[in-house]
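Dear colleagues,

As part of the handover before I leave the project, I'm documenting each prediction I ran so the next person doesn't have to rerun anything. This entry is a single chain, and its sequence is reproduced below.
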Amino acid sequence: MIGRLHRKYQRETINMFSLSKHGRVICSPAPSLSCGDFREIHEWPVLSSEDKEEIIDRVGRLIEGDDASHEFLRQRAALMADEMLENALYCAPRDASGNQIYAKGEKRRLSPAEEIVLRCAFDGEKLFLEVSDSWGRLSPETVQGYIAINLAHDTSTDRAGRGLYFMWKFMKDFYVNFAPGLKTSVGGYLLLNPDSYEYGAI
């Protein structure tokens, strides 16, 4: 599966929205994120929780370069990929009552009906990251609520929605694409030279 070009998902635009630098929902629905600048988009499925570290390593290996900027991008990419995969593995799965099914950090294999995929691409200047899951649990209100909670409190402590807050904080053009009960995708860009954009999505 490594390096497989994937284009079908660019047409999947159901209930897509992005967030302003103040955490407000904008562009809902929003157009698909254009990936035309990338020569190749890599797609890696997650079959168990033990796949997470290997996939994060693969993302890092796409960022070729030995200077401080490339190393900093690898660090941010590892953080974002980890948060995105953790959410898909442990936060998205819910029972009929809305209760979390799996404890964070628990080793588990995905069920036959469950799907988690990480997609990424790097063109030398920007890194595209997206993680999709087959639960479809997020909504604009949920994402906004999590960001508001974390804006109002110290994010050094673990709290609900902290991963989504960090994605919004550090990814350019952060978006959520969801079909309720069927699919959620979250994604955006990390820049090699981020300058001052890392205060929010726009």
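Residues 1-14, 28-32 have pLDDT under 50 and may be disordered. The longest helix spans residues 68-91.

All the best with the project,
I.
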